[in-house]
Amino acid sequence: MTPALTALQEAWRKPQGRAGAALLLVVVVSAVVGPWFLPDPLAQPDILAGSRPPGLGHPFGTDQLSRDILARVVAGARVSLSVALLAVGLSATIGAAVGLISGYLGGLVDAGLMRLVDGALAIPRLFILLLVLAVWERVPLLALVILIGATGWFATSRLVRGEVLRLREETYVRAAEALGAARRHIILRHLLPNTLGPLLVAATLGVGDVILLEAGLSFLGLGVQPPTPSWGSMVLDSREVLVSAPWAGIFPGLAIVITVLSANLFGDALRDAVDPRSA
Amino acid sequence: MSHVLEVQNLRISFPSGQSRVYPVDGVSFWLNRGETLALVGESGCGKSLTSLALLQLVPAPGRIEPGSAIQLGDMDVLALRGEALRQIRGRRIGMIFQDPMTSLNPVFTVGDQIVEGIHAHFKISRTAARDRALHLLQEVGIPDPVERLKAYPHQLSGGMRQRVMIAIALAAEPEILVADEPTTALDVTVQAQILEVLDRLRASRGMAVLLITHDLGIVAGRADRVAVMYAGQIIEEAPTEQLFAQPSHPYTQGLFASVPRISGPLRRLTPIRGTVPAPSAWPSGCRFRPRCPQAFDKSEQEPPMLPIGPDHVMRCWLADTPRIVAADERTR
Where do the domains of chain A lie, and which CATH numbers do they carry? Predict the structure, then answer.
């Protein structure tokens, strides 16, 4: 576990890494504890009053259904972050498994899996997702997570496979083989821990991608379904009132930008820590 | 004496364009219980591949050719697959590698890696395995073993790491230890210590040791027998004292003439001219012919292993002719 840990420490030492991590932390903490202090994001206390600008009672204003936008942005953070983390976790797991098996076993298994990945990478991810979601009305959140996760592991598997091809030549892997260690043992104990660094980088950068992807899908009305608040669907709802009540779109938009930016900043710092040559 | 290991006509091939090359081409040797056999040769002569073949660890796309035989006790190693193969790796034949800097996984502590070797073959509790690991570290002469168990590889010096590697290789109590250039990456002072450890363990455990090296200097006084490899073949084999007293193959003579000597009359070092050709460019007939100062017409035919003394054989036609000249006379 040490390479991944050292990478985290080194990323923290860089200014952009620290900025990214700090911003991300603010987003995460407010997503976790925020809802306890904020009004119900679904409550419509004064539906006839319509949209109100930012003020004392509602720091980010209210939307046309009189719902508190701050509460909805925070609740949306919960949704977006959990979708992103779960989906990225899923694709990192599948990608790591496929990459480890493909890289270590080699031969026909490797050729088969990698041609599959080549094929999958040739189809735009958004296209696959749109196709499924267009048919599947009111997709449940868990299904959305699985769909995003299951279409996001291709590049990761290649990355891990490349690492494994390099590691396989390391003497300690050969030494473990000479010791009579089982294949599973070599994969889990010798190869996996040494691929965690690059895997972590890919996952962190993936979080930003997935948040954008989920926001995009929700903006098209295909992702997170109302009334569950999500940043993408909030921007979608604000479209009709963009001129009269811009705050309804600006704040969720800002949330997207800040979160994706901080994830990418931190991911870049991590990458520099894992592979100084790419800096 | 019973052979614990017998290698017969080992051939290893790699694809090269349309055809195949044979970096190891007909190697035969045996190991007795409790003895040290040194396999000596320059880089690229096939000695490391030979050692990897003993555990079927020849890296892809290389393969061991049919017709080769590796007999471990009464077991045919080359017929083993999967679990049966895993059972002999580490358990019957242990292996240590050249570079102790890269032979240990940077991510795990020394203790974890020794325990790994124990657990690969023995179903014992973690505490019992820890105790054994501790004992192994003591056996290879590591000071303060309790603390060292918790150390990561980067916290140890090269010599200490090589000791750890030996401890790991011994974890499953193999009857044969293959040491592939165990001291090449180490300081001279540490080299002697490591060889000392190997020798002590061989004696106390009755292990057979296959010592692979390019350094004739570490062979003297350590090995019982020496096999000299050139271009994928063993070209001379003899008991160590015999070989040092009377190196007979022109290549072996060349090796000795290119090593500086501390005692004895002062003389010029004579390097062997040319370099080892690549496996794809090995000459017909005697493979040393293009570089050999004593080559003659018969060298154009491939020489078999010929006896030239008690337990002393070489792959050179000179064994059949009275043209043999002692190394010293020639280089004087």
Answer: 2-32+66-278 (1.10.3720.10)
Cα–Cα nearest to A157, from A117, A187, A129, A121: A117
Q: Do the Cβ atoms of A179 and B120 come within 8 Å?
A: yes
Total structural domains in chain B?
1
- pLDDT tens for residues B178-212? 998 888 877 888 888 888 888 888 888 889 999 99
Chain A positions touching B52 (Cβ under 8 A) are 174
ipTM computed for the complex: 0.78
Angle between helix axes B110-119 and B158-170 (nearest 10 degrees) is 20
pLDDT in tens, B264-308: 777 778 788 888 888 888 888 899 988 888 888 888 888 989 888
Instruction: With CB atoms and an 8 Å threshold, state whether B60 touches A106.
Output: yes
Q: How far is A256 from chain B (nearest CA, A)?
A: 37
Q: A171–B97: do the CB atoms touch at under 8 Å?
A: yes
Would residue B241 count as lying in a domain?
yes
Nearest-CA residue of chain B relative to A195? B107
Rounded distance, CA A9 to CA A18, Å?
Answer: 10
Whether A181 sits inside 8 A of B120 (CB atoms) is: yes
Q: Residue B287, exposed/middle/buried by CB under 10 A (0-12, 13-18, 19+)?
A: buried
